[in-house]
Structures are given as structure tokens and as C-alpha cells.
Amino acid sequence: MQAFGEPGHPAQIPGPMLRMPQGTTVHVTVTNQLKVPATVYGLHSRPGDTKDELQVPPGESRERTFLAGTPGTYYYWARTTVPRAFGLLPPFRQPMFEDAHLNGAFIIDPAGDVAADRVFVINALLVPSDVVHQNFEVVTINGKSYPFTEPLEYTAGDSVRWRVINPSFSEHPMHLHGAFFKLLSLGDSESDTQFVGNDRQSVVTNDVRPGGTMMMEWSPQHVGRWLFHCHFQFHFSTDERVPLFTPAVSHQSAPAEPTVAPHPHDANAMPGMPDMAGLVLIINVRPPAGAAVVSPPGQTVRKIDLVIEPAAGKTNEPTFACSVREGKKIVVSNDRAVGPPIVVTRGEPTEITVVNHLNSATSIHWHGLELESYYDGVVGGGVGDQVTPAIAPGASFVARFTPSRAGTFIYHTHAADPKQLSGGVYGGLIVLEPGQSFDPEHDKLLVIGTRDTFFDARRITINGVETPEPITLAQGATYRLRLINMAPNLPANFRLGSQEHPATWRAIAKDGATVPGRLAVESDAALHIASGETYDFEFRAESPGEVPLEIVNVVSNTKLVSKIVVR
pTM surpassing 0.90? Predict the structure, then answer.
């Protein structure tokens, strides 16, 4: 591997962190010990110019002196190769191949006291086919891939600040389980936009684009074992990552499965998450000292069944049917190709019994809900000896939670098998305010998926359908559009209207949380939405006619085309 290092120390991935207070004068010397030229970016004052580069021939050194500049989260990086295409992917500015790990954090702190934080650098590398496996992508957080990433320990009520840096060519929708986080800043290698007060957006998933950075703040409220991970299944699932890796490794030197369990003599080690691999951080949240367990007052519990079974009559591909039962009422989607929406109420205790009629184990994650770890739906989660199990074939599991906020959320399989997700084991989870009822005439749920499991997916779906019928709306009426991307691996562009004549909408919420005022404005109805994200928009068509609807996979350029008919 090509990597940065300091004199007298081993090279490291990511490179050594440069951190200093505002006003610091920086003098840097770069020595190139490779046999090829290197072009180094980001060693200059911030905000900076992406074209500002430092050319370092092989075997030579170059020096530079500059003022640190504006406080923020940045990075430096280098190239030793020229940008080139890979399969369907075009050339990227960010390195993809042997120089993909030539980068490091560059943090400028404001003067005075600075709140403690952690810095996490995400990297991705496409390896030659003779190294591991054709198309294999090595993904790391601070140079490690789960189950070898650093386990994190916090106490409930802590204030936690992280800086997440993505110098890689791939975007990463980073998802936090069990809690919302506030975005303190968003930026890239050269600039950083900071938000204060009510301008800070709350989310559970933020798509960190290629070359992007973010600073986030959150407070764990529930004890147990939690996750922070990329929501592209190829970047976190053992089923997609481990089988690609193990055939290329000698069976005499590596086990067939990753070792995720703690050492038996380490009483403080956390149990592993056996379905997880790759861009994953495991978080253990302890109770505060002297905290007492308080039982909530007795309330009437709403009871729902979620039944998962193979789709009848479909043998050419694995598709599944989800049905929702409540008392004598049974709800299924029209073609049983995706789960029907589950509608619950804020503040109402709810029990959902997941019944597994598949021939393989599954698990259901309640994406975006703030609930107890044991019910979060990740195998290996829980508290102490109460460990979340996989739901075996023929078995069931009762998830208990009381929704704390109204909004658009998701239920979806968290099993390692990517075909469960592409097969339809997911659906919208809508939480209403007390006294409200769901109005499907004016509340439109659009759940995006794919029938393919990889990034080059060509079979895009809306609500489980590849060729959806037009959506009919009334002229002058106001509608709520709830958009969810639950495809396994889909960075998508969604648009209403044409590129020349876009429709307009107004943002209402992201991930179930109301957006700040700066975002709640009328804008073109165009959106980049990655796997694991939800958005709510207010839409109103003033004129009769047809409004094109388009979803584009930005990797394969495949399109799903439909329309809204306004009458």
C-alpha cells in the first residue's frame, strides 16, 4: 500500500492527522519515497483552492509554509496515478486504486477551549483482480474494517462529537442506530460550512458525498450495543463482503468466517455483530452511575403482527411477501412485492411480532426509531446478557417500543443476505401525532427499491413495482410526499418535472425530523437520495396535466420513468 508517515514512525492509514488552532503558521516538508511522482493537495490555508497542488518528484522533497486559516474539518490527500474509469464508473477526482489511502485529516480548531471530539476517516480502495477478488472494494474507518474497527464506549447522557471525513471516491450514507444526531458542519477538503442554533439539522442518516466532511453531535439515551455504519449493504454485510474475500485467502491462514466474538478472558469486551462487516463502528452505551431502572406506567399496548413469507408463484427470483395483521384486519401491498406501510401513533406503546415463514433467518430493524437496543433488530445487539437473536425460520420475535416523534421511518430486514432486501422485506413506518389518521389520498408513500443487489442495479422499483402506474392528484390540492430509499445499494437522483421545466416542492422533514427553516423553502423538485434516507415534501400542482417522475441510478444511469397526472 502507498501511505503517508512521519519521519521515525511507520507509515499509517489514514495519514498522520494535522491539527492546530486558528492562527497557526504551518511549515510542512513532503518527501516522496515512491518510485513515481506524487501530487499532494490540501497543504495550504483554508478555505483553499482545489487546483492548488504540490508536485513532488520521486526521491525528492518539497516544502511549504502557510497560515492554517478558518476553523473546520478538512483533509489533505495525494495522487500517484491518473484518474481512470473502472467498469461502469467514470474517472473520479478522488483516487480509487493504489493511491486511494494517501490522505489524512486536517483539523483547524477555533481559538480558546475546544469541545472534545473524535475524528473518523473513511477510505475505499478498488483492488486489482489478482489481489483478492475481481471488483473487491476494501473499505475502512481509520484504517480498519469491522470486525477490527475500534469499539466505542459511552455513558447514557454523554455529549458526543464526531468529525467524519470521506476522501474516497464513493459516497457513504452514514446511519446511526437508536438516536438522532445534529449536523454541526458540512464541507469538503477545502471549505467548511458551520451551522448554529436552529440551523442545525437533526438526522439519523447523512450521505457523506465523495470528498465530503461532516461534524456531528449526539447524545446516547438508551444503554446497550448500537451501530454507526454506511447504509450501502455492500459496505456493511458479511454476506456481500466475507464470501468475496475468503475464497482468495488460504484456508490454512484464515478462518472461513470473521472472528467477531470477544476474547473469552476479556470480561469487558462487547459481543460481536455477526451479520456485520466493513464500514461499521460498534458503540456500547453504559448506564450512568447509580441509575435506577424505572418501569413505565401501565398503558394499553397496541399489538401488530408482521408476517414474512416467500412470495407465492414466483420461482425465478427470491421475492418475499410481508403482511401486517392487527386483530382481524390484514394488510398487504397490492402485488406483495414490498411490505405494506405500518402506521402507529406517537406516544402509544406498541408491540410488533415479527413472524418468519422464510427458510432462512431474518431480523427487522426499526430504522430511525429511538428505542431499546434489544428491540432495534440487529443480531448481537441488546443489553448485557440479553442479546438480540436472529429470527429463525418458523420463529417469531416481539419488538416493543413507544414512538417518541411523528414522522417517516422504515422497517427493513437487517439480515446479511442482500436478497432479502432486494426481495421486498421492507416497508414504510409512519408515526402520526395522537388523534391523526392516515389519509392515503393526500399522503403519498413512495418507497424506492431495486430487484438487483449491487450498485449497478438496473431494476429500480417504486413500492415494489418496476413499471408503476401514474399517480393521480387533484389540481390545487396539497399533498405530502414521503420518499424512502430502501434499495440495498442505490445512490439515486429523484426528480419531478423535466430538467428544463422542473416541478417545485417544499421540504418538510428528513429522517422523520422537521427540517430547519433554511431548508423549508420552495425549491426545484430534484433530490439526491441514498440508501437508508427518508424525506418528506409538500407538493401542490396548480395546473392540470402530466408531471414526469424519474429515478436515476447514478452508477449505471438506469432510469425508472413514471408520471403524476394532475386533474
Answer: yes
